[in-house]
Amino acid sequence: MRLNREERRRLPKVLGPHDAARVVQALVCPEHHEGQLVLALDWTGRLCGAEFRCPCEVCRDEPLIDGRDLADLTAALGGIELVLATFVEDAHLAPSVADVARFEGLGLECTGAGVELLDHLLFSGHRWRSVREVSVGLGA
Questions:
Q1: How many CB atoms are closer than 10 A to CB 136?
Q2: pTM to 2 decimals?
């Protein structure tokens, strides 16, 4: 999905996980419990593009798990920063140690490719958790 300039101006700036969560809630229905949404942000912190990767039987999209692939998609959408949102079941809403390690590794890979990974949000319906907040909370 690409937004024109006027549509981007109407979206809030993404200054933290709460702002990113509002954008995700505006773009995706509250019933999603699987899939991945990549939000690309421009230099002003506004959404400039997004791609939803749906694993359903019709779409059969594979989630992006490599930082370089995420960075390349972000750049193709016109962004220099990204927020990754992964849709999970309620039982997997709390970020695990593996989620934190994956976030930190993806962040390094994205930075190496010239894009900053701002956060990885886990969503279950409209409930969410920030992996970045857990990472910072652990002193990583």
A1: 11
A2: 0.80
